[in-house]
Every structure is written in structure tokens, then in C-alpha cells.
């Protein structure tokens, strides 16, 4: 996983976030780089959704 | 006259002062907010990190712009669509297509190379919202529909296939055999093609034949590069691939829905993209939710209302699916009335599947003028005689008032329907509705005294 993808994983283990929160947290990162990192997280098949539609990852995941 | 395409619509809008070009560089994260502030359709010509691309959106976010794109006046939109239903023209095959000027396969497939932004705050990801999706079943033939796609990875999207549709039926049939369903997604097509794709045609009708009826000539179709399907040759972008045989198992959504409400997470299939083709200088079409969806839905619902009225032997004069009701749940019509036809017309309009609220009035009322309509409602309606309410009709999940959220998974909600007969009641002399007119208005002209 890229460092950016690992950063996203760490954040989602801490607290559930909407996708827009993830975007807001990486405004200085080029859009395509952000999407590719998100794709890495997706491909790892570790994303879960809460009742508000926010993404999270189990801490032990 | 040559068949008009997506770029011709942009030119027509610009000629009418309905297109704003933004030449200053924008980050893709700024696009949704900027487009939401623009009173015109918007073309972004300088997108950071996407030098080869432009992005256009909100092209039919008003009825005026929809009418421009259809080449008719606003009051003729529904009649234009109804006419096309009665003179369908089958598509034709062509060998060479602008949509295949660039072909990307294998490792070159990368959905992040296409500039589609995050549209709403609560969306589950960036969405491709304005699609024309082609699928095929060996027994039932070609189907065209419009489905949203949520970014997942550079080669995969989610796709909302929850609602009942022919493509859902095709996917289920493929799934039952453990096979994927090939699909092709066209982006940046003429609104006629989008309108036709949103029409729930019988399974044996090719929706692009309806588009042909709207164009007045066949839609040219080209064979895809990697799947056994044909797509509109003059589209801007094509995504070819397959719906994986995994059933409704991947999270998708929320997405700002056509009912102006942020939706919920749904469980849906995954679309794996095998090939991307596009024009050499592509324009990505961002369908602005909810407005463009609603204005594209309205003519379809209005045409269904016209057909229902004609089957009921009622003569329609004008019809409107208010965008405040999402171009979907309501119909207002004026009719040339004979005794009893106010109620007949209501029954007809409420027979349209999605319509839960209908108003019928007389031909002297301009149904596009809210004050006129209010006047008819105030003076032609007695609620105990002129309001019809019934319950237990088929409802739609995304209407919160049907309480689908409180039902078990897979349960189908029902809805009440209401109709108001705002035609002049039988037995009341017409002279009692004779409107007051300013004395001398035709003799003295204001401009002569200014």
C-alpha cells in the first residue's frame, strides 16, 4: 500500500468518515493520486460502512 | 439537416446565452460548488491535471434549456416526446466513430484519468451520473437505461441496480448462470438519447428507436472493442466491461438522489471496466443532480400522462410534471372538458405508475402560471366533491412518507394518491367565471404614454 493509502487506513481506524471528509483531509494531494490511494484501500477489502454511510475500518483489520 | 449531437446542444445553449464557459484553471474539487452557483449550463475548459479534457454540466437543469436541447418551446416538450413514441426509428450501424478515436485497454484502463468530481457532501465517492448503459440478453435483446456509477478503484465502479428494470432482469438471468453481464456505458450523448433511456419501454422495444424518433433519423451505433454490444457512435466517452456475478453484495452510495435528498448506502453489483474509448478532445458530461435528472424525467412522465388521457378519451391542452415534485410524483393538466371528464382525467393521470398527486383544470387556465392555478383551486374546487384520495397503490422506496425504512428488507411500499378536479363544476353557469377586464385596455397603449 502507498503511504497515502496507509494514512487513509489509519484515519478510518480512528473514526468513521464520509468520503468528503477524506477528500477534505487531503486537499493538497493531487486528485488522481487521492483516488488511486482510495482505490488501494478499496482493493484491500477492509472498508465498512456505518448507519450514516460513513466509512470505517475495524481497528484490528 | 445533420443529426445533432451533444456538442451541438452546447452550441445551441451558448447561442441562447444559456452556457457559461470557465476558462480559468479549476481544481476538480471546485467544480460541483461552482456549477451549483451558475445560473447557466457550465463548461470548464481548464481542469488542473486534466489538460486533454473539458467538462460540461447542468445542460438541461431548467425546462428552458431542456426545450432548447429539444428544439421546441417549453410547452411542447411533452408533446414532442409523445410524438417520438409514435414514430420510432431503429438505430443504424456505422464502422467508424468519434467515440473510438482513443482506445485504452488492459493496463491503460484508469478511471482516475476521467475528470468526474465528488458531487455532494454525503456521496460515497465521485460519481459518473449521466450515463446511457447498453446491455443485451440472448433472448430479450438490447436494453438501454441510465444508471449511476460510483468510483471504487481505477478499474471498478459500483452501479445502482436496486430498482426494478430490464437490465436488473438481464443481470439476474446472467447471475443465475454464474456469468457476468457485459455492459457498455456511453457518456456525453444528446439529451434525446438520455430521455429515451429513461423511458420504461416494453422489454422488446429498443429505447434508441425512441431516440431516433426524437432526432427524426436513426441513431448511429458502432460496435464496441471488447464486448458484444453497440454504442452511440457520437458519444464523448465509452466504458466497456462487465457486471461481476457477485449479486447485490458491494456497498454503493449514498448519492444525492433525484428526490433532492441524500440517499442511503445500498448493496449492489460491481462494474469492472475492460476498455475505455473516447474522442481525441473529450468533454466529460456531468449530469447535475437533482435538476437534470428531474427535467429529463418530466417529459417522460408527462408523455405517459398524455397517453393516459387520450386512452380515457379526454382531450389534453397542456400538461406539466412540476420539478418541485421531482418531475416524477405529480402531474398538472388542463383539458378541453366535457361533463364528467374532470374526474375521468384525474383517474387517468393517477394511473401513471409514479404519479401520486394530480390536478386537472380547464383550458382557460395557464398551468405554468402558479397564480392562475391557485385561482382555479380557490374558485372551482369543493373539497368534499372534487378531491379524490385512495390508498394502497404502488409506492417508491425513496419517498420517505411511504415509510419504506420501517419495512423489512425486500418489502415493497404502497402509497396513497390524491387528485384535485379544478375544472368548472357541472351545473355552475359559465358566466359566474367571467373574468373582469380593464376598461379600454385595447385602445390606450402604455408605450404611447411613456
Characterization of the model:
The complex is a heterodimer of chains A (61) and B (450). Chain A is globular. Chain A is built from three helices and two strands; from the N terminus they run αααββ. In chain A, helix 1 crosses helix 3. Chain A is mainly alpha-helical. Chain A has one domain. In chain A, strands 1-2 form a two-stranded antiparallel sheet. Chain B is an alpha+beta fold and 450 residues long. The two termini of chain B are 45 Å apart. At the A-B interface, helix 2 and helix 3 of A face strand 9 of B.
SSE layout and pairings?
The complex is a heterodimer of chains A (61) and B (450).
Chain A: H1 3-14, H2 19-24, H3 31-43, E1 48-49, E2 55-56
Helix pairs in contact in A: 1-3
Chain B: H1 6-15, E1 19-22, H2 31-37, E2 41-44, E3 54-57, H3 63-70, H4 77-85, E4 92-94, E5 102-105, E6 127-128, E7 131-137, E8 141-145, E9 149-153, E10 156-159, H5 166-176, E11 181-187, H6 191-198, H7 207-215, E12 220-223, E13 230-232, E14 237-243, E15 250-252, E16 266-268, E17 270-278, E18 283-286, H8 291-311, E19 315-320, E20 330-336, H9 341-350, E21 357-362, H10 370-379, H11 383-386, E22 387-394, E23 414-422
Amino acid at each position: 500500500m502507498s503511504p497515502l493509502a496507509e494514512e487513509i487506513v489509519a484515519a478510518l481506524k480512528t473514526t468513521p468518515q464520509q468520503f468528503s471528509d477524506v477528500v477534505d483531509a487531503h486537499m493538497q494531494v493531487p486528485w488522481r493520486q487521492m483516488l488511486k490511494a482510495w482505490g488501494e484501500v478499496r482493493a484491500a477489502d477492509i472498508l465498512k460502512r456505518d448507519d450514516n454511510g460513513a466509512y470505517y475500518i475495524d481497528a484490528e483489520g | 439537416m445533420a443529426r445533432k449531437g451533444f456538442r451541438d446542444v452546447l452550441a445551441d445553449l451558448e447561442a441562447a446565452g444559456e452556457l457559461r464557459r470557465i476558462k480559468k484553471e479549476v481544481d476538480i474539487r471546485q467544480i460541483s460548488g461552482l456549477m451549483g452557483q451558475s445560473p447557466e449550463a457550465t463548461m470548464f475548459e481548464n481542469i488542473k491535471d486534466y489538460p486533454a479534457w473539458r467538462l460540461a454540466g447542468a445542460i438541461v437543469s431548467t425546462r428552458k434549456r431542456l426545450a432548447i436541447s429539444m428544439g421546441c418551446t417549453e410547452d411542447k416538450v411533452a408533446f414532442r416526446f409523445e410524438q417520438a413514441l409514435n414514430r420510432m426509428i431503429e438505430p443504424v450501424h456505422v464502422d467508424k466513430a468519434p467515440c473510438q478515436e482513443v482506445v485504452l485497454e488492459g493496463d491503460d484502463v484508469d478511471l482516475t484519468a476521467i475528470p468526474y468530481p465528488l458531487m455532494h457532501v454525503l456521496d460515497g465517492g465521485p460519481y459518473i451520473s449521466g450515463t446511457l448503459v447498453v446491455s443485451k440478453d440472448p433472448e430479450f435483446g438490447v436494453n438501454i437505461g441510465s444508471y449511476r456509477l460510483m468510483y471504487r478503484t481505477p478499474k471498478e465502479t459500483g452501479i445502482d441496480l436496486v430498482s426494478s428494470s430490464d437490465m436488473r432482469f438481464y443481470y439476474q438471468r446472467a447471475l443465475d448462470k454464474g456469468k457476468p453481464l457485459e455492459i457498455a456505458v456511453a457518456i456525453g450523448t444528446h439529451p434525446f438519447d438520455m430521455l429515451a433511456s429513461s423511458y420504461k419501454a416494453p422489454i422488446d422495444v429498443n429505447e434508441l428507436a425512441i431516440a431516433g424518433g426524437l432526432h427524426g433519423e436513426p441513431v448511429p451505433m458502432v460496435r464496441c472493442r471488447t464486448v458484444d454490444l453497440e454504442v452511440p457512435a457520437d458519444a464523448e466517452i465509452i466504458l466497456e466491461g462487465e457486471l461481476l456475478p457477485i449479486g447485490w453484495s458491494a456497498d454503493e452510495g449514498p448519492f444525492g438522489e433525484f428526490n433532492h435528498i441524500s440517499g442511503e448506502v445500498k448493496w449492489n453489483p460491481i462494474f469492472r471496466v475492460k476498455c475505455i474509448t473516447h474522442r481525441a478532445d473529450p468533454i466529460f458530461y456531468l449530469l447535475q443532480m437533482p435538476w437534470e435528472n428531474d427535467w429529463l424525467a418530466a417529459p417522460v412522465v408527462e408523455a405517459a400522462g398524455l397517453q393516459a388521457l387520450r386512452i380515457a378519451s379526454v382531450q389534453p391542452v397542456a400538461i406539466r410534471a412540476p420539478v418541485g415534485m421531482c418531475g416524477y410524483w405529480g402531474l398538472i393538466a388542463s383539458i378541453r372538458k366535457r361533463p364528467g371528464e374532470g374526474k375521468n382525467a384525474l383517474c387517468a393521470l393517477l394511473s401513471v405508475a409514479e404519479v401520486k398527486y394530480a390536478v386537472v383544470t380547464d383550458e382557460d387556465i395557464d398551468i405554468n402560471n402558479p397564480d392562475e392555478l391557485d385561482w382555479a383551486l380557490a374558485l372551482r374546487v369543493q373539497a368534499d366533491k372534487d378531491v379524490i384520495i385512495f390508498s394502497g397503490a404502488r409506492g417508491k422506496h425513496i419517498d420517505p412518507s411511504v415509510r419504506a425504512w420501517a419495512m423489512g428488507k425486500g418489502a415493497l411500499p404502497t402509497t396513497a394518491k390524491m387528485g384535485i378536479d379544478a375544472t368548472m363544476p357541472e351545473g355552475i353557469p359559465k358566466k359566474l367565471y367571467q373574468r373582469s377586464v380593464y376598461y379600454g385596455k385595447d385602445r390606450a397603449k402604455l408605450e404611447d404614454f411613456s
